Amino acid sequence: MASDTQTEFPAHIAIVMDGNGRWAQQRSRPRTMGHQAGQKALRRVVEHCGRIGVRELTVFAFSSENWNRPEKEVSRLMDLFMRALDREANELHQNGVAIRFIGDLSKFSPELQEKIQAVLARTPQDCRLRLNVAANYGGRWDITNAARALGAEIKAGALDPTDIDEALFESQLATSPGSCPDLLIRTGGETRISNFLLWQAAYSELYFSPVLWPDFGPAEIDAAISAYAARERRFGAIHESAQQKAG
Ligand code: FPP
After folding, report:
1. Which of 14, 25, 155, 214 could disulfide-link 58, Cβ–Cβ 3.0 to 4.6 Å?
2. Which CATH number is correct for 12-227, 3.20.20.210, 3.40.1180.10, 3.40.250.10, 1.10.8.10?
3. CA 63 / ligand 1 centre spacing (Å)
4. First and final C-alpha spacing in the chain
5. What's residue 245's pLDDT?
6. Nearest CA to ligand 1 atom 16
7. What does the pLDDT read at residue 3?
8. How many angstroms is it from 143 CA to the middle of ligand 1?
9. What does the pLDDT read at residue 115?
């Protein structure tokens, strides 16, 4: 599922959108303001990615750990998601962006789940850009879920454990069908993955930016892509010139 060693342009970009809270605090505003500004940044980034030919974009909107935030912040975030779906989904669809949600949606309110289902039902088949919104998502949850699904098949006698290989396992992950990210960006200065796409990011190029998410935009995406283009992806192998020397 990973692309080849060519790193000129990332077909799939994943983003940990971090720094909304600090952005708001720097302006002495409530954290919610930061999330609102974060939503606008997401819109700009989606538009830009569509324009420049990125095929898949996966964004971490709400992690399974984010429920531990103050109740008021969580509830404001949920309101923001609802309003974003109302406001943005149709336009995104019209512009050839297919939205998909990855994560355990069952913990969201029935109203939000209904809205999500309505958006999914309208998602175009043909798309320029696939937008995966990770909501109540965690990489460990994803892997555990896949293991549980395969375990159930084994229990039902439909699968032999020896037939489990990486491709089959991957087909059970929330991102399937889809590709693994070529480039994984984290904004906001922290340098960790925070339980995002643990399996899928095995060979992603990592790019950490100090820019807080609400300030992230086309120029920062272009800078990340330039950095990516300068990398060499070997997927555990060695570079051709080194291979010649070794041979
Ligand atoms: C992390 O910043 C951001 C989030 C937990 C929420 C991300 C949500 C958005 C970008 C809003 C729009 C999303 C959709 C899908 C409509 P933080 O609050 O952890 O920032 P901090 O590290 O500065 O505290």
Report:
1. 14
2. 3.40.1180.10
3. 10
4. 29
5. 54
6. 81
7. 45
8. 23
9. 94
Handedness of CA 199, 137, 177, 173 (dihedral sign): positive
Q: Is 181 in the pocket of ligand 1 (CB under 6 A)?
A: no
Ligand 1 centroid to residue 185 C-alpha, Å = 14
Q: Report d(CA 187, CA 205) in Å as an integer.
A: 14
The count of residues in the chain is: 247
Positions of the chain with pLDDT under 50? 1-3
**18 assigned to active site:** yes
Would the CB of 20 count as within 6 Å of ligand 1?
Answer: yes
The tens digit of pLDDT for each residue in 125-151 reads 889 999 999 999 999 999 999 999 999
pLDDT of residue 33: 96
91 — alpha (psi -120 to 50), left (phi > 0) or beta?
Answer: alpha
Residue 1 confidence (pLDDT)? 46
Inter-CA distances, 88 with 125, 164, 188, 222, Å? 18, 40, 25, 24
Among 23, 35, 36, 85, say which to mutate for ligand 1: greatest number of ligand atoms within 8 Å of CB. Answer: 35
Q: How far apart are CA 159 and CA 178, in angstroms?
A: 23
* Per annotation, catalytic residue among 18, 132, 136, 182: 18
Catalytic-residue membership of 126: no
pLDDT of residue 242: 58
Distance 181 CA to ligand 1 centre (A): 20
